[in-house]
Every structure is written in structure tokens, then in C-alpha cells.
Amino acid sequence: MRKELLKKVKRIVVKIGSGVLTCGENGVNPSFLAALAAEVAALRGRGIDVIIVSSGAVAAGRQALGLSDRPTTLPQKQAAAAIGQSRLMRAYEEAFSGYELKVAQILLTRDDLANRRRFQNARGTLDTLLAFGIVPVINENDTVVVDELKFGDNDNLSALVTNLVEAQLLLIMTDIDGLYTADPRTDPAATLIHQVRAITKEMERGAGGSGSGVGTGGMATKLAAAKKVTRSGVAAIVFAGKEQGNLSRVMSGEELGTLFIPAGECLNRRKHWIAFTLRPAGSIMVDAGAREVLAKHGKSLLPSGIAKVEGRFDRGACVRILAPDGAEFARGIVDYSSQEIVRISRQQSSQIEQILGFRYGDDVIHRDNLVIL
Ligand code: GLU
Questions:
Q1: Do residues 289 and 164 both lie within one domain?
Q2: Same domain, 197 and 293
């Protein structure tokens, strides 16, 4: 299975967690990076594009700031990231130059990817760097983001970057071996799961918080990332990254870590972006009939099926679409503002112009802008 999947891979995103890259309080671990550089050089030699999503800025900065603990306040974290990010990049540069590889820094915020033009711009820059044979090293722009603009964690960022660059594989290098049947730190009977076809609620419940105390993600954020990429037909492998040589072993098809198998039915890049990168500005509750035609027959959302509107949003916003029981089952981009939708809800599309004095079209959400989750 793995070998089959790996055969098609031409472009990969490699996410490196702080726990893998840094050694305790001593900041970035140069010997890890030297080994990584050798493996990336070998992959590039096989014609595979490699995009790195690297954590470690905060961890590297903490050491430089002389903080003994992880910074707790936002300004402290941002200061640590500011001082750490340049150190992190210098360490990458030094390690990769040993293999004649150049690296480039790209710092992103969630806003950058939620804006379609900036998304496309970032994509253009990344493609150009790759065409020059350069290895992009991406991190969240920690020094400027506020909570509303955060990706949250780099697992999520790596999943969105995978969609951005249309990679065929996401590799998450972390400080545990992969997904276990239970928490291996507390349950000696826990065993490693080699292959996951569908991420279940039980898996999500069982995935605990962060293990190492240096990164922000735990297994839960890795599952969320795997879920996002497998929906667009991309595989993900979560494996122990600290042990040198594991990246090459995984890429040669060895059964290390946990492989998340791509879903049969795929979302295209734009729909993936609507479902996972955009931040919903409100919600629309539909009636049972509308739920049925949206979910089962891939139709557009018409005003007649709308039961309730929550939040204030403009035309062009992303909204959650809720079933009559309140459960979210879809997301989409609206063609009318929340106030307009309130006025036309439960009406026939032919009445829109009469009610509003104008019309953009028959649909509140066109099916091309609608994703069933
Ligand atoms: N962006 C953070 C850093 O570079 C890490 C976030 C994460 O590990 O999820 O330190």
C-alpha cells in the first residue's frame, strides 16, 4: 500500500515539530538539521520537491532570551519568535549549505491563505522557489499574529500548505512513533496503528494533548491535519522524527509511523480552501428538505430552504451550514449578506428582486462554492 502511494509522489510537505528540532533548553539541534539536510538532498536528487514547515522559533528564542520555561504571555511568545526565527533560519542555512542546498524563509498568517489573491501569490512564490531548486522553510508569522489570525499550530499550517502547493504527501515528524491505540505514556498495552483508513471519533477522543512541552500540537492536531489532507486525496504519515534516517526510511516505503490513507472522494483545491482555510463568519440553518438536496444531490442553496441566519456577514463571506438539529454539515461562500438573507429566506428565488430591489442570482450559495463536510 505504502509503496504504491509513494510511487506517485513528486512533491512533499515535511512538518518538523519543535520537539524534534530542538534539544531541551539548548535551542536548535544542529546535528538533527545536518542529517535532515542530507535526507532532503537525497530526495531532491530523486526529483522530489520538498517544502518544509518548521516549528522551533519560539523554542530557539526562549533560549536566547534566557527564559527557563516556555514563554506564557503573548508578547513574550512573540518576542521569543522574533529572536528565534532568525536563529532557526541561520541553523537551516548552515546545515543545508553543506549539501549545496539553499533555503528560503516564508512566514504566513492564516489571513494570508484565507485571502484568495494572497493564497495564489504565496503559491506563485513557492513554485518559483522550487523551480530554482530552493527549499522553502515555512513557519507561522508568530510575531504579528493575534489569536483570530492564528493557524493555531503548525500541524494545521502544514495541512493548509499541502493544499496550497498541491503536494501528494504530508509527512509529520514528531516526538512519538505515530498514532497508538491508547496513550503509550500511561497505558503499557497501547500499540502503534500502522494504517488508518478513516479517522474515527474514538481516535479523536483518545488523542491527548502535547507530549513534549516544547511544541503546541499533540496527537489531536496531527489527526486534524491528516483529516484535512486525506480529504483532498493526499496521504499523510506521522512518524518519529528525532531518529536520524527515518525520513528516508519512510520515503522508501518502510512501515514506520502511521499512514493515513487518502479518502476515495476528493475535494479540489478551491473547495478544500473553503472548507478548511477560510474562517466562517456566521451560520445558516437550513430545513430538512434543503439539507437533503445539498448533501445528497449536490445542489445549490436557495433562499426557500433557509430556516435561520446567525451572525452578521457580507456577500462573499464563508459560513457554516447547519442541519435542523444544529449540526454543521457543510460550508460555503454566500452570494448575499446576512441581512439580505434574512429578508429572502423561505421565499422563492423568483421573488428576490421584488424583495431586495436587486438580485445577484437565484442561489444564496452556489454549489461550486459549497462543500459538504
Ligand atoms: N510557530 C511556532 C514556532 O515556531 C510553533 C507552533 C507549533 O509548534 O505548532 O515556535
A1: no
A2: no
The predicted-structure confidence for 87-138, as pLDDT tens digits, reads as follows 999 999 999 999 999 999 999 998 888 888 899 999 999 999 999 999 999 9
Which atom belonging to ligand 1 lies closest to the Cα atom of 157? 9
Cβ(215) – ligand 1 distance below 6 Å: yes
Tens of pLDDT, residue by residue over 271-289, are 989 998 899 999 999 999 9
Nearest CA to ligand 1 atom 8: 215
The pLDDT value given to residue 246 = 96
CATH number, domain with residue 366: 2.30.130.10
Which of 247, 271, 295 terminates a domain? The answer is 271
Provide the percentage of residues in the chain whose pLDDT is more than 70.
95
Taking the model in full, what pTM does it have? Answer: 0.84
- Ligand 1 pocket check for 143: Cβ under 6 Å: no
Is the domain of 262 the same as that of 315? no
* Higher-scoring residue by pLDDT: 164, 70: 164
Q: Is 217 in the pocket of ligand 1 (CB under 6 A)?
A: yes
Tell me which residue range forms the domain holding 348: 280-372
What was the pLDDT predicted at 202? 83
Q: Is 56 close to ligand 1, i.e. is its CB under 6 Å away?
A: yes
Structural domains of the chain, count: 2
- Phi, psi for 87 (deg, rounded to 5): -70, -40
Distance 42 CA to ligand 1 centre (A): 26
Pocket lining: 154 vs ligand 1, CB cutoff 6 Å: yes
